[in-house]
Structure to design on (233 residues):
C-alpha cells in the first residue's frame, strides 16, 4: 500500500529565500546527505509517452497522474534510481528501484525486459508502460538542491536552484553537458513535503511570509525551455 505525503511548492525570489533561510535553519536541520556546501546536485531523466501524457496531464490539472524518471546525484553513477512519482491532488508518493550502470544502459537502448524480473511492482509497471505506451526519454532536469528536514511530521523543505534543461540525448553523467536555464535567474523553487501533519511552528513560518503556492513542475518548465517556451505554467 502506498503512503502519500503532502506537497506544496513556492516560486520565490532570492530576497525571499535569503529572508526565510535563517529562520528555517533554526527549526529544521540540514539533510545529513549534503556535503560541506550544504547542497547537492540532482539530475533526472524524465520519460513520457508519444502523446506527452505526463506533460499534458500536469498542465490540465488531472487529479491522479504519474511521472517516471531516472535520478542521479552529483552526476555520479554510484546511486542510480528509477523512480515513479504518483500524484493524487495535493498528495504525492514516490517509489524507487535501484539500477546498475549496465541496467541503465540497457534501458536507454530500449531493452526493459530485465525490469520484469525485479521484485518491486513499480519496476514491472515501468516495463509494461515502456512497451505498451511507448515511453521514451523526454528531458533531463538539472538543478542544485539545498535540503532541510524535521523528524516531527517527517517534514522536508528543499530550495531548488538554477533549474536547467538538458536535451535527453546528452550523457546523464556528464557535468559539462549543455544546459539551459528553465527558471529566471532571480527565482528558485521551494518544495515543502510532510506526512500527516505540519508542525505549527513551520506552518506559522510560511503563513507570516505570505508565500503564494504555485504549480511549479520542473519537468514541464524544462520541456517548455527546450521547445522554445519560457516559464509556461
Amino acid at each position: 500500500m502506498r503512503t502519500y505525503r503532502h506537497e506544496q511548492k513556492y516560486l520565490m525570489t532570492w530576497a525571499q529565500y535569503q529572508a526565510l533561510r535563517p529562520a528555517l535553519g533554526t527549526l529544521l536541520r540540514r539533510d545529513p546527505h549534503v556535503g560541506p556546501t550544504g547542497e547537492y546536485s540532482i539530475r533526472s531523466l524524465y520519460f513520457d509517452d508519444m502523446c506527452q501524457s505526463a506533460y499534458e496531464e500536469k498542465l490540465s490539472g488531472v487529479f491522479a497522474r504519474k511521472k517516471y524518471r531516472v535520478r542521479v546525484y552529483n552526476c555520479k553513477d554510484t546511486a542510480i534510481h528509477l523512480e515513479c512519482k504518483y500524484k493524487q491532488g495535493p498528495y504525492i508518493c514516490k517509489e524507487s528501484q535501484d539500477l546498475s550502470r549496465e541496467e541503465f544502459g540497457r534501458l536507454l537502448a530500449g531493452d526493459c525486459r530485465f525490469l520484469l524480473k525485479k521484485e518491486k511492482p513499480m519496476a514491472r509497471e515501468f516495463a509494461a508502460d515502456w512497451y505498451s505506451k511507448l515511453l521514451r526519454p523526454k528531458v533531463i532536469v538539472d538543478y542544485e538542491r539545498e535540503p532541510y528536514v524535521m523528524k516531527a511530521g517527517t517534514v522536508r523543505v528543499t530550495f531548488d536552484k538554477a533549474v536547467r534543461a538538458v536535451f535527453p540525448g546528452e550523457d546523464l553523467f556528464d557535468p559539462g553537458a549543455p544546459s539551459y536555464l528553465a527558471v529566471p535567474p532571480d527565482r528558485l523553487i521551494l518544495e515543502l513535503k510532510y506526512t500527516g501533519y505540519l508542525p505549527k511552528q513551520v506552518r506559522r513560518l510560511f503563513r507570516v511570509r505570505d508565500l503564494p503556492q504555485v504549480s511549479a513542475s520542473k519537468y514541464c518548465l524544462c520541456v517548455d525551455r527546450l521547445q522554445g517556451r519560457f516559464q509556461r505554467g
